């Protein structure tokens, strides 16, 4: 959960995060089409987005991306990434654009572009890159989407199909990020089905063209284009790790029947990019591995202080000053706008949301304005010393059916109000989980000294590789599941191979 939220309630899954807001506010009335020359192919194309329009829409969307994800608060790292991006963009077909490169404060493995020259990489994807040249490969690919006007082309198609320009643009951008995603993404079935309609417009040819352009920009900036191969290998290893992790936890491994099937597979991309890279015979400078590892030394890994950190069944939000503990066997899901404690069956949970000040000053106002109940009863109570109000009642859902409500409003640390609601698949599931839902709710507390000590986020550090190997490093790692495999994954040797003794490797502390 991020401390500052600017948007009203939205879907809990991250990849669809911009959908309700955009569809509500950004549908643009019929736009005139014009003809522009594609800077990459030189061909003319009909479009609803000429260059000034690309820049204007990109700028608007840029602000919402920054608000939703947050900018990673490290100016030295931002400047480093921006410098790499500017050097690549200068060698592109659209060096005239005012390019911006932003590291987002997100653990997701993600990179995306908006029309007009706005490029994003998450600190999550940076943790998995091995060198400056790898990162340049990711950025080069995203620059390729902009120079070849893929966002504008998609917007034009979507406009014809009746979806707003900005909606199409951002959805495409964010969902491409999902395409880059791995471990977390495969668990995220819901967003995939929501995404399916849009991702279909994300052409296989556009992806391969972005790969080709990325390779070209690498070559022009003295990075070996074969680093594009490394990047795709990293993505492939993410897929393997996600599958292996699912198997280890006894979950079913999803294959085929999701939107990945409409995307060029990483296997396919790997083959094609190997062919492309083999055509380059230039002399290239060093891959900037030492500089890169120095730049990311100390970078946050996983959840950040601003997002709040999950440790086992506990959730700690240091800036907001509260903690929660899930009942035994339950899981904590930390999303941008809510924390959910979910039971083992996945059919009941406690959703905790921060209530914006504009929703009301008293608990009664909040219940009225946010929940809009038909009827119900109110009970004044306290929760670990905080004043709280319990509400049980009914409201009408969108289909006009009566829907039971069980929520508690609590005024937590710094007078911030929170809404805690019981959610379930059906009445039976609610009844079975009730005792534990109550236990989850009762765990809401001000951070204790012990909580504060446990709330420290993880960071990437570099150390010299030693004889004990990753097995030894894993024993000192705070990573809770499959630490040895995860360390191999972030060091690019999940598929095999081993660093030389004394070589710098990444660890998580
Ligand atoms: Zn792409």
How does this model look, in words?
A 7-stranded antiparallel sheet has the order 10-11-12-16-15-14-13, with helices on both faces. A 4-stranded antiparallel sheet has the order 7-8-9-17. A 3-stranded mixed sheet has the order 3-5-4, sandwiched between helices. The two termini are 22 Å apart. The chain contains 18 helices and 19 strands. Mean pLDDT is 82; it is low at 5-29, 165-201 and 255-263. α11 runs antiparallel to α12. The protein is α+β, with helices and mostly antiparallel strands and 509 residues long. A hairpin with a 5-residue loop joins β15 and β16. The protein is 41% helix and 20% strand. Residues 141, 145, 176, 207, 210 line the site of zinc ion.
Give a list of the ligands.
Answer: zinc ion
Number of helices: 18
Uncertain residue ranges: 5-29, 165-201, 255-263
Helix content: 40-55%
Structure classification: alpha+beta
Strand-residue fraction?
Answer: 15-25%
Largest sheet: 7 strands, antiparallel
The gross shape turns out to be: globular
Cα separation of the termini: 22 Å
Strand order of the largest sheet: 10-11-12-16-15-14-13
């Amino acid at each position: 959960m991020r401390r500052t939220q600017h948007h009203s309630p939205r879907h809990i899954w991250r990849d669809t995060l911009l959908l309700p807001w955009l569809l509500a506010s950004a549908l643009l009335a019929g736009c005139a089409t014009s003809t522009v020359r594609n800077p990459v192919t030189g061909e003319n194309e009909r479009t609803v987005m000429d260059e000034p329009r690309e820049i204007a829409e990109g700028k608007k969307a840029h602000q919402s991306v920054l608000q939703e994800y947050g900018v990673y608060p490290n100016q030295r790292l931002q400047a480093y990434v921006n410098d790499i991006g500017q050097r690549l963009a200068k060698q592109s077909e659209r060096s005239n654009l005012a390019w911006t490169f932003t590291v987002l404060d997100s653990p997701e493995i993600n990179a995306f572009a908006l029309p007009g020259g706005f490029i994003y990489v998450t600190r999550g994807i940076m943790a998995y890159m091995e060198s400056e040249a790898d990162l340049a490969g990711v950025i080069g690919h995203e620059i390729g989407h902009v120079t070849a006007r893929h966002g504008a082309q998609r917007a034009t198609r979507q406009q014809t199909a009746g979806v707003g320009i900005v909606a199409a643009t951002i959805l495409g951008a964010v969902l491409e990020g999902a395409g880059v995603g791995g471990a977390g993404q495969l668990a995220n079935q819901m967003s995939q089905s929501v995404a399916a309609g849009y991702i279909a417009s994300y052409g296989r040819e556009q992806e391969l063209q972005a790969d080709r352009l990325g390779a070209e920009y690498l070559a022009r900036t003295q990075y070996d284009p074969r680093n594009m191969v490394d990047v795709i290998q990293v993505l492939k290893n993410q897929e393997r790790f996600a599958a292996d992790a699912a198997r280890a936890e006894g979950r079913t491994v999803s294959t085929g029947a999701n939107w990945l099937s409409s995307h060029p597979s990483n296997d396919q991309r790997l083959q094609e990019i190997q062919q492309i890279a083999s055509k380059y015979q230039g002399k290239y400078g060093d891959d900037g591995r030492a500089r890169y590892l120095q730049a990311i030394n100390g970078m946050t890994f996983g959840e950040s202080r601003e997002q709040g950190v999950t440790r086992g069944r506990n959730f700690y939000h240091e800036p907001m000053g509260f903690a929660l503990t899930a009942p035994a066997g339950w899981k904590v899901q930390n999303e941008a706008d809510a924390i959910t404690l979910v039971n083992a069956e996945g059919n009941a949970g406690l959703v905790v949301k921060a209530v914006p000040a504009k929703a009301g000053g008293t608990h009664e106002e909040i219940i009225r304005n946010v929940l809009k109940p038909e009827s119900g009863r109110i009970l004044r109570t306290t929760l670990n010393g905080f004043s709280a109000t319990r509400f049980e009642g009914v409201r009408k859902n969108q289909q006009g059916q009566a829907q039971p409500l069980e929520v508690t409003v609590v005024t937590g640390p710094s007078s911030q109000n929170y809404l805690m609601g019981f959610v379930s698949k059906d009445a039976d599931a609610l009844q079975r989980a009730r005792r534990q839902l109550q236990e989850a709710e009762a765990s809401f507390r001000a951070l204790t000294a012990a909580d504060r000590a446990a709330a420290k986020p993880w960071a990437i550090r570099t150390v010299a590789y030693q004889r004990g190997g990753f097995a030894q490093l894993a024993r000192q790692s705070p990573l809770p599941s499959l630490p040895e495999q995860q360390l191999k994954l972030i060091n690019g040797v999940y598929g095999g191979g081993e660093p030389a003794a004394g070589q710098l490797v990444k660890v998580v502390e």
